[in-house]
Amino acid sequence: MRIDDVYIGGIGAFLPPFAERPAGEGGSPLPDGLTGALVAGELPPPEMAVRAARQAFERAGADPSTLDLLFHVSVFHQGPDGWLPQSYIQRELGLDPHAMAVELRQGCNGMFTGLELAISHLRADAARGSALLTAAENFNSALVDRWTAHPGSYLGDSGSAVLLTRRPGFARLRSVATVSVPELEQLHRGDEALFPPGATVGRPLDFGRRAGQFRATAEAANVPALLGKARDELLARVLDESGTELTDVTRVVSVNTARAHAKERLMDPLGLPMSRSAWEFGSRMGHLGAGDQFLTLERMAVAGALGAGDRVLMIGVGPGLSIGAAVVEIVHSPDWA
Which Pfam families is this protein grouped with (predicted)? Predict the structure, then answer.
């Protein structure tokens, strides 16, 4: 999707304290130095989303009551079963009750899906001026071991919010797109039965175990080729739509994972050095579900690492399997940086 009329007015972040991985947990330390993750204790994910959203509105100087759309992106449990977290967020923020509020469950790739849907919603009616995307997770649960459940990273807790606006903001979206690779659906399912759902019978979430089960199938041999083809075609598309060359990319923002993973699976195929990645900004947060990319962008902005004219290439991967990407152009350093 080529974009020239939607900006990022503000980004909000709720970052709980950093916790070192307990001794004896998660095996040996990862060789590239991941030592822990953000841990929120018992703070509910929707409350973290609300706090991040308030900061996004404040940074943008925007009135929550004028919002036209809310997407809350989730990965893990958000609260009581059968209850909807977006309604809580809408009430707490004092959003217009006529604004559409929806929860999106698109895994770790959910913010890219949300961007595409939100932009389409804004473009469908000239009277619509802004949309809010939130994401939040708390992985403190007997159903998941944050230190071992996701190979190559530790699971972190956080809240994030991105305010999209038709008015000029500190950054402009230039392109966004997603692609699916359904042939690899079993990679994140393994041999688990579809029913009853694992959480209802107390089965722990363990992506490493599921991936190991998938590796025993004939389809596993196709993973590198299918993933590489989908990734390369998607990145070529968003770069072309945004009028961006790889040499123009200031930073590449991806999933918060092991340094070796970021290098070997993304930066090396792109032919770019790790110095052009944003790995160091995300390495002490953990993998935050769908929040990695925009919280890393927020951390870079706060650190003063982004300037006018910089172009940031974002990419994410989620179960299903889906890949999302976007190009963001920095218009000016935000006042809150």
Answer: ACP_syn_III, ACP_syn_III_C
